[in-house]
């Protein structure tokens, strides 16, 4: 999915809190691919600003309580990553709560991710 779609094509459900819809279909997990342009690491989370050619969004990876105070930020500015997560809102801004994040080892994955598909309206 392109980041622009998070703002143009996805809407919050008017019936169920924390549920997002695209073409009246509920979304559970979304996948984004982009470049990390900012990193903010705190005691309980790491926050990445993810950008693609269509926009930018904050992605938050919460540290499990079992990890204690050992926050390890594995990704840096300039890394190309694939993020899977849930759409949330914090202070009226959309962001992604990261379920998984991985480095893009093969740039051919970009072509597959941004392939020649279009959303039906």
Q: Which descriptors apply to this entry?
A:
121 residues, mainly beta, five-stranded mixed β-barrel, three-stranded antiparallel beta sheet, 2 helices, 49% strand, globular
Brief write-up:
With 121 residues, the chain is mainly β.
Outline type: globular
Rg, rounded, reads 15 Å
Mean pLDDT: 83
**Largest sheet, if any?**
5 strands, mixed, barrel
The stretches of 5 or more residues where confidence is low (pLDDT under 50) are none
Number of distinct beta strands: 8
Strand content bin: over 45%
Number of helices: 2
How far apart are the termini?
Answer: 15 Å
**SSE pattern, N- to C-terminal:** HEEEEEEEEH
Helix content: under 10%
- Main-sheet strand order equals 4-5-6-8-7
Structural class call reads mainly beta
Could you describe the 3D structure shown?
The protein is mainly beta and 121 residues long. The chain is built from 2 helices and 8 strands; from the N terminus they run H-E-E-E-E-E-E-E-E-H. The strands form 2 sheets. The protein has a 5-stranded mixed barrel with strand order 4-5-6-8-7. It is globular. It starts with a helix and ends in an 8-residue tail after the last helix.
């Amino acid at each position: 999915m392109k980041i622009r779609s998070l703002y143009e094509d996805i809407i919050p459900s008017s019936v169920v809190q924390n549920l997002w819809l695209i073409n009246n279909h509920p979304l559970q997990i979304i996948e984004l691919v982009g470049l990390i342009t900012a990193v903010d690491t705190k005691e309980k989370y790491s926050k990445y600003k993810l950008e693609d050619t269509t926009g930018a969004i904050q992605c938050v990876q919460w540290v499990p309580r079992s990890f204690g105070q050992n926050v390890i930020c594995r990704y840096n500015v300039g890394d190309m990553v694939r993020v899977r997560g849930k759409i949330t809102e914090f202070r009226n801004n959309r962001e992604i709560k990261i379920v998984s994040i991985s480095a893009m080892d093969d740039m051919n994955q970009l072509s597959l991710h941004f392939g020649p598909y279009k959303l039906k309206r």
